[in-house]
Design goal:
The chain contains 7 helices and 7 strands, in the order H-E-E-H-E-E-E-E-H-H-E-H-H-H. By secondary structure, the chain is of the alpha+beta class.
Length: 206
């Protein structure tokens, strides 16, 4: 089983990306076959510690390189013909939101979604992590944890898992499930029974 080694956590924040690249999207999404195997290896358990969650415990949008933070890096990575200002903030480009098929030219119309929401991660085991590991999770660029998506779609998702929320674009369900499973597997997070069942069904769409 793959796990994120603490010794490599800092490396997850140091993946430079060239501006103005064509759409790339998050890296590391497994095949359906790999995702099914990973799903079988994830521990099934009820969530705990929901009442102790605080978003501030996940230091997010950490600096990646120069003046670029994780949020800006994802916007550059996931957009086409992205132009930035001197502070690395994208000012123009085109973004395709995979969750709903939306196409945007104003970066203000996009949120950076954590595939496995921070609160969901907390309830699934991140409550026992140290600050460094939570920071690495919240800013991870080495896997498919971060996505540039339509802002109101991200807000509708909130901290919901696949048993109660799926992307509006049905054709994306396969990729969504593969990404969700992989993130939980890599970071050693648990799943509720209903969550696991929903992911199994979503993977059949592959």
């Amino acid at each position: 089983m793959r796990r994120i080694a603490l010794a490599t956590i800092s490396a997850l924040l140091l993946i430079p990306l060239a501006p103005n690249a064509a759409w790339a999207g998050p890296p590391g999404i497994p095949t359906a076959e790999v995702a099914i195997n990973e799903l079988g290896a994830v521990t099934v358990a009820e969530e705990t510690h929901a009442d102790t969650y605080d978003r501030k415990k996940f230091i997010h949008w950490a600096t990646v390189q120069g003046q670029c933070d994780a949020r800006e890096t994802v916007l550059i990575r996931d957009g086409e013909n992205v132009e930035t200002n001197a502070k690395c903030s994208p000012v123009s480009g085109t973004w395709h939101s995979p969750y709903d098929g939306g196409v945007w030219t104003d970066p203000q119309d996009l949120d950076i979604d954590h595939m496995v929401p921070l609160k969901e991660a907390w309830r699934s085991g991140a409550w026992e992590w140290d600050t460094a590991k939570r920071k690495a999770f919240a800013n991870s660029l080495s896997d498919s944890q971060l996505w540039a998506v339509t802002d109101n779609v991200n807000q509708a998702k909130g901290d919901k898992d696949p048993s109660v929320w799926r992307p509006p674009l049905a054709s994306f369900e396969c990729e969504y499930a593969r990404s969700w499973v992989d993130v939980k597997f890599d970071w050693g997070l648990t799943m509720q029974p209903a969550e696991r069942s929903a992911l199994e069904k979503m993977l059949t769409t592959c």
